Amino acid sequence: PEASQEIFKIASMAPGALLLEAQKEYEKESQKADEYLREIKEQKLLPEAVSQCIEAAGYEHEPETQKSLLRAASFGKCFIDKFPPESFVRMCQDLRVLNAIRDYQIGIPLTFTQYKRLTIEVLLDRLVLRRLYPLAIRICEYLRLSEIQGVSRILAHWACYKVQQKDKSDEEVAHAINQKLGDTPGISYSEIAARAYDCGRTELAIKLLEYEPRSGEQVPLLLKMKRSKLALSKAIESGDTDLVYTVVLHLKNELNRGTFFMTLQNQPVALSLYRQFCKHQERETLKDLYNQDDNHQELGNFHVHSSYA
């Protein structure tokens, strides 16, 4: 990179090289620091010198060299009025991330250019695929990424990996996932439950759905798992009339008529809503419902209304 070449080539008089020397002499408490600094300021190249040191730090792999260049940039900033700090702060953040993933235990030796082109989202995906969840979460928290963009996505991936492990009981896995995820914004327990169901762990999926606060997310998966009666209970608990109708009509198509009526008998709210539906859509079914209940009063009213019709 041009910035590094300019600073480190032999006998370089580039502003970045002079600033680096000035900072080193300042640490030695030498008056040469003032001479170097004066030379840069006379040429009005101090902002360029700071920028050069910041840029060069990104292309260095050795942390000590990075620190040396950033110290020089920080030293130079003190003598500039209103130097924008964003580039310095961003470089410090990027280098901390790069040094973390370059560690031999992680083994992703990206250059600064590769890191920028890869984007932080793709890097996090790679860490997650390697199951390096703690590092990925620390990076998200350090860079202050949004919950949806960062931590919650990683935790959801961890949970989906967890449900595939067969060495623990459904109860233990569900409890461990809930302990870790809690009420983290952006987490969908129904998606994790769907992954558990796809892995053949239906009971685990049902336990995970207990932690899903949105009934609208619970019910479709319960219907898919053929747990229609539980889906009906959840829909009634939600107080969402449309959701109840959806489950009732699903039950109607899934069960034979006798079983369907018996199921509704145990759910007064669903039965009442289905009666309302029949009054407007299926008058003949209404008659069967009254017969099933031995409700002679309403059955008589039904025949009177039918005769007027």
UniProtKB/TrEMBL annotation:
It holds the Pfam family Vps16_C. The keyword Coiled coil applies. Transmembrane segments: none annotated. Residues 1-90 form the Vps16 N-terminal domain. One of its GO terms (cellular component) is lysosomal membrane. Residues 19-46 form a coiled coil. Keywords: Coiled coil. The keyword Nucleus does not apply. GO terms for molecular function: actin binding. GO terms for biological process: endosomal transport; intracellular protein transport; vacuole fusion, non-autophagic. Signal peptide: none annotated. Residues 187-308 form the Vps16 C-terminal domain. Belongs to the VPS16 family. This is Vacuolar protein sorting-associated protein 16 homolog. It comes from Nothocercus nigrocapillus. The lineage of its organism: Eukaryota, Metazoa, Chordata, Craniata, Vertebrata. The gene is Vps16.
